[in-house]
Every structure is written in structure tokens, then in C-alpha cells.
Write a structure and sequence with these properties.
Radius of gyration: 22 Å
Strand content: 5-15%
Distance between the termini: 73 Å
Number of strands: 10
Largest sheet: 4 strands, antiparallel
Order of helices and strands: HEHHHEHEHEHEEEHEEHHEHHHHHH
Number of helices: 16
């Protein structure tokens, strides 16, 4: 298609301005060629590192082929939106064993809908400038190697913890994409990898989920275990999870580049319902009705009420033997869910041990 009378580089300058107005911190353009990722992806899947996330295997190499996912795609616009709330005292929360630690990204509203709406608005601005075009927007919602696309678009490099790192912003940000059916000048220079000899993220991982640099075994990852995995968590791993009840930020908190991460001004990403300073016992006593009401529009809904209680029971099993901790566990000993009862009994046994 034609770009009317607009030069491609003029359009890129306009996109940069529109993206900033919509709350995006950075954007870049890449081609659709991700063939270099296919071998790594296949080996990772063959090793079973995706755990029970069978959808990753089901989509296979489609993740590395944006032009097959959305036929006609010629360019990919990748965008970054920072999410770190201000003053959430993450390290102190981890140190307080009676506190519930929730990943910083999940303290506010779910980012998926909000970012999709912003991406749609950006696509609309582009259409106003160049005329109708074919496109699809994605926010962690399609079989797409978004980190590889973001790297190719110049948003950062892939760190040893498998996240995109940016020298000016660390890694506390979400990624979104607009796949378009017209060619745009792609980024031609990849960001240099600045991890160097640092292995802080690999060394600090509580459950040793990193097989090696850039290789994560999701089956040992606390984020996978507390969010995606629905079954009984291996007792060996429970003791290592501490008070992390939804997600895990350790490999980000220890990363030296995150000293450059700036707090977000987005209201949707600010903590809700006191989740940034709630205790394990307090959250464990939520009824299902309270859980559904207080997690409306929250990423935490993905764990489900049963998974939420399972995770909290593990946190309580790792907490000090205080009266609130023991009373909360006793209150759930006869819970209808066998999964919850199993983890409650494990927690109580931990407190009975000499």
C-alpha cells in the first residue's frame, strides 16, 4: 500500500510523538524475520522447560513467524510501557516473612486491556495520517516472540534472566506490538548486550530456575508455579518460595540496570486494595466473594481462588509461627479443595517441626 504523501521517516517521527502522548516510553520497528530464533525455541520446547503450558508447544514455530500468524504482515511496531509503582519497598516486603509478596506488575489493574486500547488508538492515529491499512495489535495475547521482536526493534537486549533490559529503564516494563501490512524502515542496529560477567540474576533465583544464562526452566520458576501451574507444587520448591504468592521479581530486583527504572505515572498500575502491604494471614482469610471483588480487573484473577489459597498456604508455611499465621492456617484445614487442604497441612507440619 502507499503512504499517501507521507515519507516513511516522517511517519516514524509522528509515531514516536503519538506513542509518547499515549503513555508509551519507547517504540521501535523490526522486520518479521525471526528465523534465527527457531532453533533455540525448538530446543527449549524439546527439553520440556515450558512445563504444563502446552499452548506454547501447540503453536510451535508460529511464534517465530509473524507473517504466518497475521498473513500480509510486513513490519512490526514494538512498544514499551513502564509499570513500576513508586515506593513499594519490594526488598523490605520480601524480608518480612509474614508479608505477602505480589509481583510489582500485578499490584494494579490488568495491563492487557489498557495497553490494547492504547495500541488501537495509536493504530487509529496512523490510519488518519496514511489511510486505512491492515493491522493487528497484541499484548502478550498471541503466539509471538515479543521479546525477540522488541530486541530487533532496538528496545534493549535479552538479559541472562531472559528479559529485555534497557540501559535507561531496566526491565520493569510491558511490551506490546502492532503488526502492519506495509513496510516501515526497520531498526538496523541491535542494542549492545551490557550484562557482561554479571550473574546476579542467575545466582539469586530462589528456586534455581535458570539452567544457564538465557535458559529458564519454567517448571522451577515461581512466576510459573504461582500463576500458570494449577496442580500440587513440589514440596522441595515450596520451602524455597518464601512469601512470594503471585509472581516473583527477584531476578529483576537484583539486576544492576534496574537502578535506572523510573516509577510510572500511570494510575492503572498503582497498587489497589492494599496489596502492596497486606499480610499473608489477611489475604488467606478472604472469602471467594472477596477474592473476586478485590481482584476484579487484576492480573491476580489468572491464578484463580484455589491457586491463590494454595500459594498463600505455602507462604504461611514459610512464615514465623505467630498467632495470626497459625490461626489463619487452622481456619482453612477443612477447606473443600483437596489441593488447598494438602498445602495447608504441609504448612502446619512445618510449624510443628522442632
Amino acid at each position: 500500500m502507499s503512504l499517501k504523501n507521507m515519507e516513511p521517516h516522517s511517519l516514524l517521527d509522528a509515531i514516536a510523538s503519538w506513542a509518547q502522548e499515549l503513555g508509551f516510553a519507547q517504540y521501535g520497528v523490526s522486520s518479521v524475520d525471526l528465523s534465527a530464533e527457531e532453533d533455540y525455541l525448538q530446543k527449549w520446547l524439546d527439553a520440556g522447560y515450558h512445563g504444563d503450558m502446552e499452548y506454547l508447544e501447540r503453536h510451535g514455530m508460529l511464534r517465530a513467524r509473524p507473517d504466518e500468524l497475521v498473513p500480509g504482515t510486513l513490519s512490526v511496531i514494538s512498544l514499551r510501557m513502564d509499570y513500576l509503582p513508586a515506593d513499594t519497598a519490594a526488598v523490605q516486603r520480601l524480608a518480612d516473612r509474614e508479608a505477602a509478596y505480589i509481583s510489582r506488575y500485578a499490584l494494579g489493574r490488568d495491563y492487557h486491556k489498557m495497553m490494547r486500547k492504547r495500541l488501537q488508538k495509536l493504530a487509529g492515529r496512523i490510519a488518519e495520517a496514511i489511510g486505512p491499512f491492515g493491522y493487528r495489535v497484541f499484548v502478550d495475547s498471541a503466539p509471538l516472540l515479543e521479546k525477540a521482536l522488541a530486541r530487533n526493534a532496538g528496545l534493549g537486549w535479552v538479559g541472562k534472566n531472559t528479559l529485555i533490559l534497557n540501559r535507561k529503564a531496566g526491565s520493569f516494563f510491558f511490551l506490546g506490538e502492532i503488526l502492519v501490512d506495509f513496510p516501515l524502515p526497520a531498526n538496523s542496529e541491535l542494542a549492545r548486550n551490557h550484562c557482561g560477567s554479571c550473574t546476579a540474576c542467575l545466582d539469586l533465583c530462589p528456586t534455581r530456575a535458570f539452567v544457564s544464562a538465557n535458559v529458564l526452566d519454567a517448571r522451577r520458576c515461581i512466576s510459573y508455579l504461582t500463576i500458570e501451574y494449577k496442580g500440587s507444587i513440589d514440596p522441595e520448591l515450596r520451602a524455597l518460595m518464601g512469601n512470594r504468592v503471585f509472581g516473583c521479581d527477584d531476578c529483576q530486583l537484583v539486576c544492576p540496570w534496574n537502578r535506572f527504572a523510573r516509577p510510572t505515572a500511570e494510575q492503572d498500575f498503582q497498587p489497589r486494595h492494599g496489596l502492596d502491604n497486606a499480610s499473608l494471614a489477611e489475604l488467606f482469610l478472604w472469602t471467594e466473594e472477596e477474592f473476586l471483588q478485590r481482584t476484579e480487573g487484576s492480573p491476580i484473577r489468572r491464578a484463580g481462588y484455589e491457586g491463590w489459597l494454595r500459594n498463600l498456604a505455602i507462604g504461611l508455611g514459610n512464615a514465623p509461627s505467630t498467632i495470626p499465621v497459625l490461626e489463619a492456617l487452622q481456619a482453612r484445614r477443612d477447606h473443600p479443595s483437596e489441593l488447598v487442604r494438602e498445602h495447608v497441612e504441609w504448612a502446619l507440619q512445618r510449624h510443628r517441626a522442632p
